[in-house]
Design goal:
The complex is a heterodimer.
Chain A (H helix, E strand, L loop, with lengths): L2 H8 L4 E7 L7 H11 L4 E5 L10 H12 L4 H10 L8 E4 L2 H7 L1 H10 L4 E3 L5 H15 L2 E3 L1 E2 L5 H10 L4 E4 L13 H11 L7 E4 L5 H8 L4 E4 L1 H10 L4 H9 L1
Parallel strand pairs in A: 1-2, 1-9, 2-3, 3-4, 4-5, 6-7, 7-8, 8-9
Chain B lengths: L11 E2 L2 E2 L8 H16 L1 H15 L5 E3 L1 H7 L2 E5 L10 H14 L4 E6 L3 H13 L2 E7 H6 L1 H9 L3 E5 L6 H14 L4 E2 L10 H9 L1 H14 L6 E5 L4 H7 L9 E9 L10 H4 L1 E5 L2 E5 L24 H8 L3 E7 H15 L5 H8 L11 E5 L8 H9 L1
Parallel strand pairs in B: 4-14, 5-6, 5-8, 6-7, 9-10, 9-14, 10-13
Antiparallel strand pairs in B: 1-2, 3-4, 11-12
Helix pairs in contact in B: 1-9, 2-4, 4-5, 4-9, 5-7, 9-11, 10-11, 14-15
Classes of the chains: A alpha/beta, B alpha/beta.
């Protein structure tokens, strides 16, 4: 059983996950942000690996990634940072990055480092299912890693069923046809989509992300899924108000 | 027999290619992958495509024996005059074909990226022709250095959106186009080169293949043989080279030379010579050769030529490079400028800066006297006049 499955055994409603960018706002902030999120009782944390060309990300995460790279962050530094909190951090971590980062680092070397850091779940938004089936499933199995797939309003039922069968942690339900950082309330059209997915009675837990930003969108989304992920809104707050104010951002959402 | 230079069912040329795309693009890309071959090979498409190429683009383009250039370099040098295509470059061969495919798929909104602006102009042109909505993404830096093409796109009714991320050039324009496509999956992404997720690289190569299709019969008429000894073309993403090589890929006796932009020099840190500086990686949905650092972060390329200022090459080129089917050479900014001025002076043809890179290797190759060489003259230089004028002053 992986860390996310264990989490779901304890709690499977109203989960809040926060995405943050490693090395942002400052190089050494990676572990500080994780500690602050843990203190604020976030259920699990998405550890974002800054990438130069993040195709699925909007301006906020592009900017934080750019800043982090300018700060000198790289995969070796990130893995070292994560190693220092391996024993103390109790909140499950999920690694989110782009496939080229793993490819260039060396697929086996990357997977081994992830495992060494005590992480067992990864999200790679540009890893397509066919590549997973042909190659990456065997690689991840070898290291006991779990891959999270994304589904969208345009993913067919047949494909969702297949993704469900491959999913061991959760399915990442992309809330609308958008990149990260979409704004505004949840529309009726989105609710219809969430209900459709909910009524499919999938074996996987569902976490909604992309466009979840505050108490209202969190509460609405949680009606149709086990929890949500907030990314851009958190990064924006972190950039403006700093690590000390993380609790002020989280508390109103989960209270 | 299926050529080894055609992609497999997952869009791979050897280890290169594939479709590494976020899930949101999957239905779009699948729809295209399921339909493009059938559409392109249909009689109806071929009739419309060939008719537009003839009546609208002005094909066949001449295969011109450049006498003075030939004398200078001691070979029979032919220029495939893609610069004489409507809109001034080979790019329109692809946009005419893709706009017909978009129509067959019922798409009414078109998006595209552009570097030098040639693909943007060619896309805006066919959108005007067909009455379709057109949005072009262009790096902010390129908007400045290719101002005449920006004006042409606007006059043609296209919306030009500046890409302000990263290096503000072709790579970033492509990123922004893909991000827009994710948010507007109803649009048709009319990609400008043999790059992007499968099936785009193969689709664009098939549409540019008209260049080598014509070369075959034109050479037969002029030399008695369909095959030249050597074909030379410049490579950014690699669409004009793919088109010029396409029908000769399996004829191993035809030497294929692709010329990349070396910028200030391959090892200067200011270069776009991808095959020399890159390693296997993923860019814009395709596994290929890519300029990147040890952590897979994409390195910002440099070239004086906006159309070659790209950190990757199409997956077919990565495969041609790896298998040594094509030879990858390069030319610096200065060498390209010198070659542009030379062609202008001795043949009366002002080439695009991109094309000038292909011409620049003529002085680096030792030819046999009877060697038949075709240089793909991919575009004309009107858009680069400001750069040329500045160079004249120096």
């Amino acid at each position: 059983m992986n860390s996310i499955q264990k989490l779901f055994q304890q709690k499977d409603k109203n989960l809040l996950s926060i995405y943050f960018t490693c090395g942002y706002p400052k190089l050494e902030d990676t572990t500080k942000v994780i500690a602050a999120l843990e203190k604020s009782n976030v259920d699990f944390i998405e550890v974002g690996l800054p990438y130069s060309d993040p195709l699925a990300d909007g301006p906020t995460i592009q900017d934080s990634s750019h800043k982090a790279l300018e700060n000198g962050i790289n995969l070796d530094i990130i893995f070292n940072q994560l190693m220092t909190i391996k024993e103390t951090n109790k909140t499950p971590l999920v690694l989110m990055g782009y496939l080229n980062q793993m490819l260039k680092y060396g697929e086996d070397r990357f997977c081994q480092k992830v495992v060494d850091c005590g992480i067992d779940t990864v999200i790679l938004p540009d890893l397509p299912m066919v590549e997973f089936e042909n190659h990456y499933k065997a690689l991840f199995d070898k290291y006991g890693l779990t891959n999270v797939f994304l589904i969208t309003p345009h993913t067919s039922e047949e494909r969702i069923r297949k993704i469900d069968s491959y999913s061991k942690a959760f399915i990442y339900v992309v809330a609308s046809a958008s990149i990260t950082g979409a704004k505004g309330d949840i529309s009726n059209q989105q609710v219809v989509y969430f209900e459709r997915i909910k009524n499919m009675n999938l074996q996987s837990k569902l976490i909604i992300g992309f466009g979840i930003s505050d108490k209202q969108t969190f509460t609405t989304a949680c009606k149709y899924a086990n929890g949500t992920i907030i990314g851009s809104a958190f990064i924006k707050n972190l950039g403006e108000n700093g690590i000390d104010k993380i609790d002020d951002f989280i508390k109103p959402i989960i209270s | 027999m299926k050529s080894k230079f055609h992609p497999d069912e997952n869009g791979y040329f050897g280890q290169y290619g594939g479709a590494f795309i976020p899930e949101l693009l999957y239905p779009n890309v699948k729809e295209l992958a399921d339909n493009y071959v059938q559409i392109i090979e249909s009689e109806e498409f071929q009739k419309e495509y060939k008719s537009l190429l003839k009546e609208y683009v002005g094909r066949p383009t001449p295969l011109y024996l450049a006498k003075r250039l030939s004398e200078k370099y001691g070979a029979h040098i032919y220029l495939k005059r893609e610069d004489l295509c409507h809109t001034g470059a080979h790019k329109v061969n692809n946009t005419v074909g893709q706009i017909l495919i978009a129509q067959k798929l019922g798409k009414t909104k078109i998006i595209a990226e552009t570097g030098a602006g040639q693909h943007g102009v060619a896309t805006a042109t066919v959108c005007a022709l067909m009455g379709l909505d057109c949005t072009i993404f262009m790096g902010e830096k390129d908007i400045v250095r290719q101002a005449p093409n920006v004006a042409r796109m606007k006059m043609l009714g296209a919306k030009v959106v500046p890409a302000i991320s990263g290096s503000k050039t072709l790579k970033d324009a492509t990123n922004e186009a893909i991000r827009y496509w994710i948010q507007h999956p109803e649009t048709f992404y009319l990609i400008g080169s043999v790059v992007g997720p499968a099936p785009h690289p193969d689709m664009v190569a098939r549409l540019q293949a008209i260049i080598s299709e014509e070369m075959k019969w034109q050479l037969k008429e002029k030399t008695g043989k369909e095959n030249p000894d050597t074909i030379i073309a410049c490579v950014g993403g690699g669409s004009n080279a793919a088109g010029a090589f396409y029908h000769y890929l399996d004829d191993e006796d035809v030497e294929l030379i692709a010329v990349e932009a070396a910028g200030l020099g391959v090892d200067s840190g200011e270069s776009a010579a991808t095959s020399q500086l890159g390693q296997v990686g993923i860019i814009h949905g395709s596994k290929t050769i890519l300029m990147q650092d040890e952590y897979g972060q994409i390195v910002e390329p440099y070239s004086i030529s906006a159309g070659l200022d790209y950190p990757g090459v199409g997956p077919l080129h990565a495969f041609l490079y790896e298998t040594k089917r094509a030879k990858y050479m390069n030319a610096t900014d200065q060498e390209a400028l010198d070659a542009a001025f030379e062609l202008t002076k001795i043949e009366g043809i002002i080439p695009a800066l991109e094309t000038a890179h292909a011409l620049a290797v003529l002085s680096k190759i030792k030819f046999r006297k009877d060697q038949v060489v075709v240089v793909n003259l991919s575009g004309r230089g009107d858009k680069d006049l400001e750069t040329y004028i500045n160079h004249l002053k120096e």
